[in-house]
Write a structure and sequence with these properties.
The complex is a heterodimer.
Chain A (H helix, E strand, L loop, with lengths): L1 H29 L6 H4 L8 H10 L6 H13 L13 H36 L4 H15 L2 H15 L17 H35 L2 H8 L4 H37 L5 H10 L3 H29 L1 H4 L6
Chain B lengths: L1 H21 L1 H4 L31 H37 L1 H15 L3 H12 L3 H10 L3 H15 L2 H8 L4 H12 L1 H25 L10 H11 L6 H26 L8
Helix pairs in contact in B: 1-3, 1-12, 3-4, 3-6, 3-7, 3-10, 3-11, 5-6, 7-9, 7-10, 8-9, 10-11, 10-12, 11-12
The chains are: A mainly alpha, B mainly alpha.
């Protein structure tokens, strides 16, 4: 049962990646404007038609699109992502330089969001009608209405320009050695912007489900039988955690999209910033690589969440719900 | 009752923003691209109600005109995504069976991709323009709508009156528009409201990154793009006001959605 379930999930993940690659490849190559633009560099005007044709031939850009896609897919599966058109270095190398930074930002903010929202959601949900309970609902709507980058701009104004306590952008100081403390200092602002704009939303989902669990029969019975409060809380959290995880899974893609913008604002040298740059210079190999890697991270995160849900939800394990 | 009051309040706030931006041609005190190089970075006050930017352009006028651009792009793109979502979800839900399974697997895959990535891929080929942006946001924003239309259609397909209509030989398009679609309007409306907030978000974010609406056209996102640098020299007014308006607009849209959901009109069966 379990093996079959895991296999099915993995197949779905691979299917997602395949669709991502197919769609993004064709979207990029279907548009007006030659996909060779990035190879021309800034010389598009001065190159002769013959030279342009030579470039097209050299990179097989004159072949039918489906052939190009097939070739790309074959190389990608074997781990060769090609050369960046604008920088002339292997895409895989560029991506591997960027990946740790993105994972650091993504991981740190995710960790704080989960811890913070569990704490807030539980505290608010256990005391219906309290100030925290009502306040959290409003905070969650308000915080999800603010563009993250605007909060970022305000943060830069307050902490970097006015107070001067934190660096305004970048992943390391020019003068610094790029050590651990330096990195953390640069991480504080982007991570807290992501956390602040997301934590309310997730806390609210947990708050709502904790509230409805607290009203349920089994809690009343447990109370009547004198089960300890701590034990009840543990049980309620376990049950309320399932819709929470579900919501987490649904929003992971857009959460990841949001951190792209934060990365760009703080010049955080991660994948998101790289994607935006490669759009600007029409560096298709790099963009394709970046998109695939982002897709892979999302698929893996979704898989982990699915496994967690499988462990927590007995209904899913018994196969009562189709996963 | 309280929900009702909230709804009225947030609707009027959104309405006020709409009216202000819609009549921007009349209300603007300066032409949007008029540069006053003697009054660069003028703080809010006499002459320039909300100050000027790095080229001496009037922030107040650009704010109104920019709002018109941002809200037009958002509104039209939501209309587009509504249409795509209804058609995709409608076919999937109405036809059912094998077609439904295939279409849903594809949708599942599409939902797990950050839509910002698709927007980036589209943006790479189309390179901006107001209409380009509208199409891009519309084409990446229909997933939830499609899901809801599909589940509503499946739920309604078994209703007595639909079976009855089929028995009497009512044409399919009449059943679809008159019965199925009309009865799924309430949840659809709520989703569309949230989509609108999302569309404003995407336009603002992309223009802010410098890959959205071209810099010559003022939009709220574009204004914030410039504000990034201006804030470093202490010109807070250029970033503050567009940000406030974006915040208030999305906030009122979200609260309206919330109020509609609470009033039980927008039941979800997604």
């Amino acid at each position: 049962m379990t093996v079959k379930w895991v296999g099915k999930r993995m197949m779905l993940g691979i299917l997602v990646l395949f669709i991502v690659s197919f769609l993004s490849f064709f979207i990029m190559h279907a548009g007006p404007g030659s996909s060779a633009t990035a190879y021309y560099g800034g010389n598009a005007q001065t190159l002769t038609a013959a030279e342009k044709e030579r470039i097209s031939k050299a990179f097989a850009l004159d072949r039918p699109m489906i052939v190009q896609y097939g070739a790309w897919l074959k190389e990608t599966v074997t781990g060769n992502l090609g050369m960046s058109a604008s920088v002339g270095r292997p895409v895989a190398t560029i991506l591997s330089e960027r990946l740790p930074n993105t994972l650091l930002l993504f991981g740190t903010s995710m960790l704080f969001i989960i811890l913070g929202s569990i704490w807030l959601g539980m505290a608010a949900g256990m005391k219906p009608g309290s100030l925290l309970d009502r306040g959290l609902s409003t905070f969650s709507i308000a915080s999800s209405s603010i563009p993250a980058f605007w909060v970022g701009i305000l943060f830069i104004y307050v902490f970097a320009v006015t107070l001067g306590v934190l660096p305004s952008s970048g992943t390391r100081s020019l003068s610094g050695d790029g050590g651990f403390v330096d990195k953390i200092k640069h991480l504080i602002m982007p991570a807290s912007v992501v956390v602040l704009t997301h934590v309310g939303l997730y806390a609210r989902i947990l708050q709502d489900s904790v509230k409805s669990e607290m009203r349920s029969y089994y809690v009343m019975v447990a109370r009547a039988n004198g089960v300890e409060e701590l034990e009840i809380r543990r049980g309620v959290l376990c049950k309320a955690f399932i819709p929470y995880l579900n919501y987490l899974g649904i929003t992971i893609p857009s959460f990841f999209g949001g951190s792209v913008i934060v990365e760009s604002l703080f010049s955080w040298a991660g994948l998101g910033q790289l994607l935006v740059k490669s759009v600007m210079v029409k560096d298709y190999p790099l963009l394709m690589g970046g998109i695939m890697l982002t897709g892979l991270i999302v698929v893996i995160t979704l898989f982990v969440i699915d496994v967690l849900m499988y462990i927590l939800d007995p209904k899913l394990r018994r196969g009562e719900l189709s996963g | 009752m309280k929900t009702r009051k909230n709804l009225v309040f947030w609707c009027s706030l959104l309405g006020l923003t709409l009216v202000l931006t819609l009549f921007s041609d009349v209300l603007a005190t300066h032409p949007v691209n008029e540069m006053d190089l003697d009054a660069v970075y003028a703080p809010p006050g006499e002459g320039h109600l909300l100050g000027t930017d790095h080229l001496g352009r009037d922030v107040f006028s650009r704010l109104l005109q920019g709002g018109k651009v941002t809200l037009t792009v958002a509104g039209l793109s939501v209309a587009l995504s509504f249409a795509i979502g209804v058609i995709y979800g409608g076919i999937s839900g109405y036809v059912g069976g094998w077609t439904d399974s295939v279409m849903m697997r594809i949708l599942e895959a599409l939902i797990s991709i950050p839509s910002l990535i698709f927007v980036l891929a589209f943006q790479a080929i189309m390179q901006g323009g107001m209409w380009g942006m509208t199409v891009i946001i519309g084409m990446t924003g229909w997933f939830t709508t499609a899901r809801i239309v599909r589940s509503e259609f499946i739920r309604l397909k078994d209703a007595e009156y639909v079976k009855m209509a089929k028995m009497f030989g009512t044409p399919a398009w009449k059943i679809i528009t008159g019965h199925l679609l009309r009865n799924s309007m309430a949840p659809l409306f709520v989703v569309t409201i949230y989509n609108l907030a999302g569309a404003v978000f995407i336009e603002v974010s992309l223009s802010f990154l410098g890959i959205g609406i071209p810099p010559s056209v003022p939009s709220w996102g574009n204004m914030l793009y410039n504000a990034q640098n201006d804030i470093l020299i202490g010109a807070w007014w250029i970033g503050l006001f567009p940000g406030m308006l974006i915040f208030l607009t999305i906030l009122s849209i979200n609260f309206i959605g919330e109020a509609m959901k609470d009033s039980g009109r927008g039941r979800f069966h997604a």
